[in-house]
Amino acid sequence: MVPSIARQSVILKCNMQRSILTGNYEFYYAAGLLAKLTDIEIPDEIRPLALAALIKESGPGGPDSKTANVSAEKIEYLRQMLLDYMPKEEYDLQMKELLTWGMGEERLFQV
Questions:
Q1: Of 63, 81, 80, whose CA–CA distance to 72 is shortest?
Q2: Do the beta carbons of residue 98 and residue 32 sit within 8 Å?
């Protein structure tokens, strides 16, 4: 798996607001991005089913001062994609890499 493909896929899906997450790699990058945008605390070695439960328990959140240029609508679409996804139990280190990439993303929603 090439991590940049998962990143690009999530960004395009959020920008177009017309798709669903199709795998755990996208799920992990998207979760990291949501964590950055809403200040959800996600442990970097969390497993897929636990990550899905954590996202479901978190509130809708919203942009803060560091992400003021991101619309609340885009954040909510990202969150809804995460809530709709049913993760598989498989986990590998690339998922951790994608999660931390999303949490540290500097080029928000830019391909």
A1: 63
A2: yes
Confidence of residue 55 (pLDDT cuts 50, 70, 90): very high
Question: DSSP of the chain, one letter per residue?
Answer: --HHHHHHHHHHHHHHT-----SHHHHHHHHHHHHHHHT----TT--HHHHHHHHHHS------GGGTTS-HHHHHHHHHHHHH----S---HHHHHHHHHHHT-SSTT--
Token duo for residue 103: 């949490």
CB atoms within 10 A of CB 16: 9
| pLDDT single digits (tens) 11-54 | 889 888 888 989 999 999 999 999 999 878 999 899 999 999 99
Q: Which two tokens stand for residue 56?
A: 């479901």
Looking from the CA of 108 toward its CB, the CA atoms found within 13 Å total: 17
pLDDT at 111: 75
In this prediction the pTM is 0.89
Dist CA 23 CA 25 (whole Å): 5
